[in-house]
Write a structure and sequence with these properties.
CATH topology: Fic-like fold
Structural class: mainly alpha
CATH superfamily: Fido-like domain
Strand content: under 5%
Strand order of the largest sheet: 1-2
Shape: globular
Helix content: 55-70%
Number of helices: 11
Oligomer: single chain
Amino acid sequence: MNFLSGLDEDIKSILLAQIRNLWTHTSTALEGNSLTLGETAFVLEEGLTIGGKPLRDHQEVFGHARAIDLVYGLISAGKIDTEDLFTLHKAVLSESVLDIFKPVGNWKKQPNYTNYIGADGKQHIREYPAPLCIPALMSQWLERLNEALSVPSGTPIYADLHLDFVTIHPFFDGNGRLARLISNLPILRAGLPPIVVPTEMKLEYRRSISDYQSTIPGLESLKDLNLLPNNEERRRFADLCSNFHEPTLSLLREARKLQEKRLIS
């Protein structure tokens, strides 16, 4: 990974652990995981559990950390395909119980929904694209991902891939975590550390995604990604993502300062 260039091996190891801990904590916490950043770091570094915390939360953390390693392994891959996504899904949902109607490592078999607050201030139910639409939509999504990997990419392509993935919602569960992982691949290939969504931005992050999805008529029957609107709500999500890179960039700057100090002394 190019962002590690020029760093001694011990500093590289520390930086990668910091990024893994932060990325894992923020992404799982956004989905309700109760482990703090410090507890996440302890669990991953020591391999021990935290008393009083659910086993599921520990499994989520280990699964996400494993998925990060898989994403790193895809940086030099020639082409990303469906099986790569399925492998990541299996890692992220390592704690799931086998259920043919909730497949792990395959597209969803049943419709999925979410609750949201509409512009009228009332609660509504959103239905994501139907299972039959998923293979074609994800084929388009993968084509866009592979196109992005062929040229240097920045935050805008991360935001587009991320937003489209969670709008398609191809899996029965784990869509947010998968989106925050795989959408970083162009960022990593461009030689930058990953973008992470800070836990303190959870409300703005979720609201921005929901506001965009509310602008899509007939989302449940979407069959073509080209029909997704390029509107103000989409641009607002991209602007929000531009602020999400600072946490890992800050860690990288700190590591480089330590490296410079070592070279001077």
